[in-house]
């Protein structure tokens, strides 16, 4: 009786022939045209070339040609180069622990030749003639002596002609070409001593200078004006050397595509460095923006494992947390020592045509005690110049900062607080912010912006963003910070939370106390709120706590300091003076002077700029005075 079962027997195990094995390996090593370019160019660099010409047509799908002036391959070694795992770069397994070359596995050339039509011409300096080979689909078609200059020239045509499934899933020619563009730009940036010439469909796309000077390459890739907005980074610590350039925040991009990282000369994707840059730029870039950066990292080869990814695009490093901290500190230090005031005519970096594809730093200087209740001008005057956005913003974010009512009261208020707010605190001993301009307030624009003049031009300050930065640095928990100002509530507020929300508040209770929130456990899912930061209205205390809970939930299970940063930013935003509120001249000047003493005066904690500028030359040009 047939019970539906099918008898199965194990097929006989066989050793695959070399051609089939190469095609399987090609699926790992040669993923798309950019993989071919990467492998060929890395071989050129390993050969000591200081001139590499890359020419592609049809996005690299139709043809790829790489010509270098390296040491070449001898006639007897050229056929061996197309055998799997034949390499001159390592001799045994122990060498894998100290890789100093870009290639080492001997898989690239046989893998490429297995899925394409490949022609190679190569000559060593010692030989009077070169050697030629033509291979298609892994089969040798022709070989022999050939006339050619010292170095190696490889032409790859009809990529994946014999693996239609792989070819079918390639992207468009422009997309594949864009990925190659990206790779060549990155290699040029991390190898400034090598002259790269890149030609796509007969048009020269890039010619790097090969001068060894990174700014020259930055100018070639991004344009001269953008290159001038890049800042040098150089640090050596604990056997780790970091060298490169990072962009000012105004050069930010919407993706990480323009973060270029090389480790021991190898261009890689590094989550560790990306996280370090996020740490360094925290508060300087808005959400969803990423910096432009070119960083070259050098450390002992024994501390690296470059053999974890088929295409060698990812690596493993010892002491990754130490590296993250060092990169973050080095970049943050450079940013702190630079005037980051955006210029209105500032330029974004020229974007090479490419295909689409934490712990905050502690503030190490005390900020003088702030008077948060800035004196307002007549509210009627404020309303007359308030935009619809300003009115909405003022309604939604109403806080304990109350405007003064009546002209007489305004006048009295000005005189009463002139000595308190109008006076600028002394700069701490030994501290001088050399890059922030010395500004004199000229007036208020649209009850939202402060106009000021200083050496070199005219400056516009966002009053909300500036006050937000000042308050944030008060809340964030600086060394030596005084106890928070707390107002205790006459009637404690019962906050009802679900279990997970209550657990979160319990976990961050100390951090909240440092900000001025005083809680008492009231059983089950309840907390009694007995105190809130001094400059908030008691009437909004429950909403404030719920906003804090939501902020913690949104941050997720990240580091405690990252949550503290987010909470301090939220409080600063809610307490800061809003767009649409009119301020007295004394208040505006005090706000600007205190912003100058902030540790990071150029942006609010969410990354929006606090100040922008027009130079005298730009103003003259606007009025045709040049």
From TrEMBL:
Query: Which CDD domains does the record cross-reference, listed alphabetically?
Result: HATPase_MutL-MLH-PMS-like, MutL_Trans
Please give a single GO biological process term from the UniProt record.
Answer: mismatch repair
Q: Which residues form the DNA mismatch repair protein S5 domain?
A: 218-336
SUPFAM superfamilies listed in its UniProt record:
ATPase domain of HSP90 chaperone/DNA topoisomerase II/histidine kinase, DNA mismatch repair protein MutL, Ribosomal protein S5 domain 2-like
Do you know which Gene3D superfamilies this protein is assigned to? 3.30.230.10, Histidine kinase-like ATPase, C-terminal domain, MutL, C-terminal domain, dimerisation subdomain, MutL, C-terminal domain, regulatory subdomain
A single GO molecular-function term is: ATP-dependent DNA damage sensor activity
Query: GO CC terms on record?
Result: mismatch repair complex
Residues forming the MutL C-terminal dimerisation domain are: 441-583
Q: Biased composition, Basic and acidic residues: where in the chain?
A: 388-398
Keywords noted in UniProt:
DNA damage, DNA repair
Q: Does the keyword DNA repair apply?
A: yes
Q: Which family does it belong to?
A: Belongs to the DNA mismatch repair MutL/HexB family.
Q: Which PANTHER family match?
A: DNA MISMATCH REPAIR PROTEIN MLH, PMS, MUTL, DNA MISMATCH REPAIR PROTEIN MLH1
Q: HAMAP family under this entry?
A: DNA_mis_repair
Spell out the protein name for this chain. DNA mismatch repair protein MutL
Query: Gene that codes for this?
Result: mutL
